[in-house]
Amino acid sequence: MTGMQLKTLAQQVQTxxxxxxxxEFCRRAERVKQAFGEKTGLCxxxxxxxxLLAALPDVFDKIEVCSPGExxxxxxxxxxxxxxxxxxxxxxxxxxxxxxTDNVGTFTAESMLHLNLINDCAIRQGKQVSxxxxxxxxxxxxxxxxEVLSIIENRADYPxxxxxxxxxxxxxxxxxxxxxx
Length: 181
Prior knowledge:
Blueprint: H1 3-13, H2 22-36, E1 43-45, E2 62-65, H3 68-76, E3 84-86, H4 93-101, E4 106-109, H5 112-124, E5 129-135, H6 145-153, E6 161-168, H7 177-180
Parallel strand pairs: 1-2, 2-3, 3-4, 4-5, 5-6
Helix pairs in contact: 4-5
């Protein structure tokens, strides 16, 4: 948008508002994809901007959903549930059952409690679901390395899940590569 277009829009809205340039959003997402290469998938977390889900560029492979409310947004917008990663630390048995009924593509397990909850629900529904094990980045979220390795070594004990990867999040507001490394 040009400065004049923004001024006109501000006059029409007449209240504080965020304006997102969807074309720029698409261009930036494409640049990120190009920078990391075609083998890297991009995931859009709807937490901060759920209203952008309806205009999500095709460059995104996954949609991260962290709450029942965010799952409701996906349901209402008829999002492709196979793209959804159902994440979050506060999952209940009811939430997991609902997500499985919606045919969510991937789940994350933040703890042994989550692993057992997801596994048991999948078995009850006669399914095997894709699962990411969340490895802690030093915070209270996720499991430590020994716990993750133990789960992987004993994965046959969890027939309701197919471990497809590790979810590792180092935190927000990190602008220096060394902090992330």
